[in-house]
What does this fold into?
Amino acid sequence: MEHSALDASVLVLLALIFSIGAIFAYILQRFHLPTFLAFILTGILLGPNALNLVHVQEIQTMAQVGIIFLLFIVGLDLSVDKLRQLRYQAPLAGLMQLGLTALALTLALHFLGKFPWQLAFLVGSILSLSSTAIVLKSLEEHREIDSDHGRLILGVLIIQDLSIIPLMALVPSLTQPFTSETTTQLAWITFNALIFGAIAVAISLKVVPVFLDRLASTNKKEVFTLALVCIGLGMALLTHQMGLSYEAGAFVAGLALSRSLFCRQVIADSKAFRDVFITLFFVSMGLLFDVRFLLQNGWLVLGVTTLLILLKAVCAYVAVRALRFPHRTALWAGLSLFQVGEFSFVLLGRTLDTIRQVPSWQELLGFWNPIIIDAIIISMFLTPLVLRLIHRFSSPYLKGRMKRVKTTVEPEESQASSLAHVIVAGYGPIARNLTTALEEQGIPYIVVETNLKTVRKLKARGIRCVYGDISRREILEFAGIEQTTILAITFPDIRTAESAAQLAKQINPKTYCMARSRYRADIERLHRIGVDSIIYEEFETSVSFIFNIMNHLHYPVLETDRLITRVRQLENNLHRAPVTREHTIFGRFSLLEGTQIRWLPISTGSELSGKSLKEAKIRQKTGVNVIALVQGQDKVQVAADPDLILQAEDMLVGAGTLSQLQALENLLSP
It folds into this structure.
């Protein structure tokens, strides 16, 4: 019974956290603020300094797993290709920003906070990190990721993320007075890091690709997902055994997978359980926010927050200006990077855990810790508001800049599908024919496929493709659904097609979605979720039969067109949902509303028999446009030349209204 009560308390705790978090997320989403801020607010509200319903110890383990997964995803996003895309100025600006900010904060902590030099340098370096999640979300929301300042800020954030691992390795050595043992410890950490780096490179190049190839070939999503968890947690355990942190292993595991074909699918498959743990990580951040301390020491917290923001903003501005970037770009960098990032919490927690060996240092950091934590969270909440304000004031300038920037970005440097007008989901026989037609017409496209061998063959041929499940948001977004004109779902799996089309319409309602259906029962459901055009396989097969039979019997193409259009209308009248929402490929003449095309025979004894088309003056007398004249028993079509002589038993092909065609029929009669 006691065990059941404990389980119930855990469930109640999680239900409370996620319920309050969902409410805050909905509210903040209405104001276009990052969702994870809602979970920080949840922690603040439920924490020991407010309602006192949740404590850090109760979710600490799950929050730790959230940190591991967060660094795993950061590693996945930091591909070598992405680093190559950045010009040397961006990484250099990142190094200068880290160096200047760490120096400025070290001096401030030493002279104002009375920190020892060693501890001041460690805490200053930790606080020099910015929030990748907040800044990138703002840049993507305002479509500034490819602007001058966007690419620069991205480079700085990448360098900051890469610095997390060495900072974690240095924490144990810098949280104790410097002695000869410290030098030995640093040397041992460096040696372990090099050994681990060599092992990680060997595993990522030789073992992981073969392992994932075998799993991907099974097409079992659950097996693939579990394997990813094993890789991430396994590398985390390996680094811990070597005296490094769990987070370092997760980061390197993500980095090892970042260049593989599976990268985007890994991100998509890990999203569900990753979000749960990351949510608890941000809730744990909110639990540490001391509301009572803020109310009692408001001026002190406000002063520290202001000084922290100013120092970080000024250092980022100076670092960018030192590389001769324009004043406006440097100002954007300074105002975007002034906050302290989520990983600073991780490093500060690690510092507090390891500093216990020096009581005086522990007491000093214990006094400043609530001040620093409050300042960090306040700076994170200020960031979206500041970025929105500067975007609003500079939007006219940005529009002009973005036009110039977009013309200079190379296709391979932009996202995988920035130029694709069509996303082709699946690559079977239908998709092969479709892509052949697109290539001949010069229409850019990108293929999304789950068959690993097919993806590799396409890449070898230079065709842009993504390995992944098209029904996952991350795959659709990477394929460029926000800018895509058409989504063509060519595979027969109706469940996946339904999910993909519905998600595509949510992301970009203007996308024209096409899908195929084997059964009539699925068509109405596909139309209901927003699919614009559905290829009904059984009906289109019957249309092909009609067309080929009529062609073999030498019926004229336009007469066949009329027949197929009629059959299509009858099919649609039998069911509520139409086979297609637009005119068929055979029935486009019906775009001329009220206009009909008829085949009219010239009867023996007609007044037009023996006259040329010019002499007959059909258009002047009836208003009908003669499209063609079919002469002879073999029904050979002849262009409607004005000098052609009309003879009995010939067939006139005319276009006009019903009354006009009736007038012509009377004229052709005896």
The longest strand covers residues 625-631.
